[in-house]
Every structure is written in C-alpha cells, then in structure tokens.
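Why does this matter for the project? Reviewers at the last site visit asked to see concrete outputs rather than summary tables. In response, this paragraph embeds two records directly. Each consists of the residue sequence and, immediately after it, the corresponding structure tokens. Nothing has been edited or filtered.
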Amino acid sequence: MIHRLSFEEVDRALCDIMSIPFKGPDYRPFGGKVVLLGGDFRQTLPVIPDAGREDSVDSSLTRSYLWNFCMVLHLSQNMRLLPNSINEEPFFDGMSFAEWTLNVGNGSIPGRSFHVNQPADWIEIPTQLLIEPSDDCLSTIAAVVYDAFAENYYSISYLAERSIVTPTNQNVLELNDHMLAMVPGSVRSYFSCDTVHSDSNDAAAISSEYPTEFLNSLSFNGYPDHQIDLKVFTPIILLRNLNPSIGLCNGTRMMVVYLGHYVIRAIIMGGTFDGKTVAIPRIVLSINDYRWPFVLKRRQFPVRLCYAMAINKSQRQTLQHVGVYLLKPVFSHGQLYVAISRVKSPAGLHFLILNEAGIPSNYTRSIVYPETFSELEESATTALG
C-alpha cells in the first residue's frame, strides 16, 4: 500500500498544474481530475521503520483528507480464485475457502492467546493445508512447492505458477540459496560498486570512516545486495520500474536465459508481456537509510532470485502453488491474508509452521488492524463536482 502522503503530494502537484487553489471553496481534489485507485486495505500497510500500530494506521489513505472525496466501489466477483474454490463445499468450520480467506483479512476468525498479556490473535490453520516438518524444513517445503524440480527447473510455466513466501528476508535468502544449489550449471556472481554519494554531508570524511568493504556488507529492503548469485533458468524479480511500456516494472517475475557482463536477458513470466524476452542493465540506485549518516550509491542489477520472496513483496502476484514458510509468525497487519490470498485454489496452498519452541504447530498469528478499513462502507461526504 502507498503512504497517504504520496497521494497528497500528487494532489498538490495536480492542483498546481491545473491552477486550482489547494484550499478554499474552489479546491478540487487532484486538480479536478477523476482518479481511479485500486487496492485492498486488508493487505499490508506502508512500511515505516520502528513505527507502532498508530503510526502504521495513520499512513493509510483512509486517514487522509482525500478520503472525504473518495467513493468506494466493491468488486462483485472474486477475480483470483477459481470458480470451484468460491462455490465449493465448506472448507473449514463451515466456511468456503473464499469466505475463510476474507474472514482472515477482516480479523473475524476467532483467535486465542498462548501467554498472559498476549493478544488473542493466534488462529488455527486448517489441517489440510499443513506440511509435516522434518529435521530439514528448507528441504521439506521446497519438495512440496517445487515437486519434480529436477525435471522442470528450466520450465517457464512451472516456475511462473509457484513460489514460497515468508515474513523475513533472512528466510528468503536461505530458501533462495537452497533452491539455487539444486539447479545444474555454474553460478555467475555479480558484485555492486558502492560509494558514498557526493551530496552527503562531509562525504570525504564519511568515505574514510566507512570503507568500501563495509558499504558492501549493507543490505536494504527493496534493493539489490552487493553480491547477486544467478544461474541460467533461475527465476528473478525486478526491484525497480525500468520500462513499464515493455513490462519491466517493479515486481515483474522473469526467468534468466543469458548472463552477460553488461546485461542479463530474461523472459517475462505472466501478465500482459508473458513470454517477452527483455534485457536488464545495471543501474545506479541511491539508498537513503535513516540508520546511516550518508546516502549510498549502489550500481547493480536491480533484481533478486525469487524461488522465495517476502510476503510484502508477493503482493500483486497470483500463483497456483504457494508455500507459506512460518518459522516465525507474521509481524504486521495483513501479512497472513496476503500469503493466503496469492493462490487460485486451496489445493495449491501449503503451510509449514513452527511455534516459539521450534515444534510443529497448526496455530499462527494473524495481525489485523480493523480501524484501517472501518470507513470503507461510508460513502463520499463531499461532492466531486
């Protein structure tokens, strides 16, 4: 979900372009232009470092002055689930899979607490979705989601319809490394060029205090790492908008077909540009992280392996087979709902859950902030005309 401040900046810009006053009786949202926004408030909220519940909820569009000008329209048909998953016999506790998924997103599934002073937000996952863990959890979930991998590792259709999702980037890295080792062929490693941005305060002093080796060790959410290991036929996900007109958008999944020095060639998996071969160059990314007193410039291919991906990154994906890897529970609003709602049918959804003691469990956290979407049923209170 996009932070409400981003919408408000667009509103101010369009008002300025259209010469419409930002305040007063002549104000028109977005400069008088009709803007169509699509999304699901059950999904994750904008990521705000070290933010609490109140700050996260406050970042939602429903807390913006623009919300008073919005008219809420609801889909009348589920566009992701297959028809037999919508109209099926009761899936769990008298609910169909579609109803159960929506109830998870709405926070209306009865939960329980396992410790004193712990919120009662631990819900039961249906037994038919559970994977029985072994001593090697990585191999267990990989074998279920990527069954017959040795015969299909190079198949675009096979890779396009499956992924493992997990809350933490550390688990994502472990899963991707595990899958990469199973692909035949040699690894090609790409290393970034990292420098302190010249516009940073005291850039020269900072450069001497933070050597290149330290800059290389830094990892950031949503940015490529210093070292990217790839093989031909591995799936990757794009981390930046490069050229939307040919399908190179943030979140596009592709299969690598050529690993060159200056470009990576890949075939787009899914969507309007399914099957299109594209070239991905290195680009310079500016990373401004509040933890460090400088802006980092990283020149690297804007991609990551995506046999597994973070739950937040999996939004907008529609898949046939999804493994939800929960060695630790989710930690923010909507994450469990996002993980569940990636699939077209419950037959393709698999959970591997461990509790705090590392013991297999059929309970996991489902964090929902109902106040985020409590106003969705309200009509616009201000006319657009």
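We now turn to the second protein, recorded in exactly the same manner.
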Amino acid sequence: MEALNAADWIIVSVIGVSTLVSVLRGFVREAFSLAGWVLAFAAAMLLSDRLAYLLAGSISDESGRRIVAFALLFVMTLIAVGLCGRLLRGVIRFAGLGAFDRVLGMAFGFVRGVFVLLAAIVMLRGLLEPERFAWWQNSVLLPHLLLLEGWFRQFTGVLSAWLAGTGN
C-alpha cells in the first residue's frame, strides 16, 4: 500500500470527524439538525414577506420589518424542528433503540463527510487547477472521490435546474 499524503490525511480526517460526531449525536439528532436548517431557511424565504406585512404596526422601517420577520421565522422553525427531534430521540431511547440510532448516525456521518469532500473538490476545481499539484496527483484516496464527483456534479446540476423551475 502506498503512503498517504497530506490530501489523504485531510480526507481521512474529514470523514472520521464527521462520522465520530454523528455516532455521538445519533442519526435522529443529525437528521433533524440538517432538516431544521433546510426547513428554517425555506420557511423564512417563503413566509417572511407575509410576516413582515403583519409587523407593519410594530416596526415602521420596512427593511427592519423584513429582517425581523426573516429572523423570527428562521429561529422559530429551528426551535420547532429541534423540539420534534428531541421528542423523537426520547421515544427511540425509551424503545431501546439508542444503539441502532448511533449506528445509523455513523452511516449518516460518513455520507455527510463524503459530501463535504465532494463539495470541496468541486470548489477547488472551480478556483484553481488542482490536477497540476503533486498532492493531488499522488493522493491514494482522491481517485475514489473523483469517481463520485461526476455524479455529484450531475446531481447538483439537476437539483439547481429543478429549484429554478426549469428541470425535468
């Protein structure tokens, strides 16, 4: 086996830390955390204009109303999803499924680590030409991630098109 270089150790570290954090927190907590951020952003984007309108009697400055409305919706959604996750975690522990939750958390953390690395690869390729560097060329683990990069780019392209309303 070839020796790992700095890029390989970064790959191992990102996946390792992500996996370890998710094992400690469990799948339900990790999934609800991710869902909370996504839902909070979506709720704030979709509903902040309506809430800002309702705040007109309390806040006279329009930009202030919009900021307060966005922040309130974002924070309240995060809290609501967090409470739901906490309730579900309690049910899972009561049912004796804590170990299963942690094993699923480990898988979630591993996948999240891979996605973080794929996003970093896409960003690196957009900012510079990493292929010309020795650390890129001599990496043992990077070729495995590069196999997934094409799929990742295709997926993000389809997702972007769908979110823009022009996708298939």
